[in-house]
Amino acid sequence: MHLIRPFVKQCLMASSACVFFYTSSVMAVDVVDFSKESPQLQVQKLREQNGEQRLEIQTLQQELMRLQGSIEQYVHRLAILETDVAALKAKAVQQVAPAPQPEVEEPQATLAPTVQSFAAASAQADAEAASVKPVVEKVAKKVEVAADNGGDLEAYQEAFNAIKAKKYKSAERQLKDYLTLFPQGEYAPNAHYWLGELNWISQKHKTASKYFSAVIKQYPSSVKYDDARYKMAIIHNRAGEHTKAKALLKLLNNNSKTKERIKKLSTAFWNKKYAN
Question: Which residues lie below 8 Å from residue 171, measured CB to CB, with a gap of 6+?
Answer without folding.
Answer: 159, 160, 162, 163, 194, 198
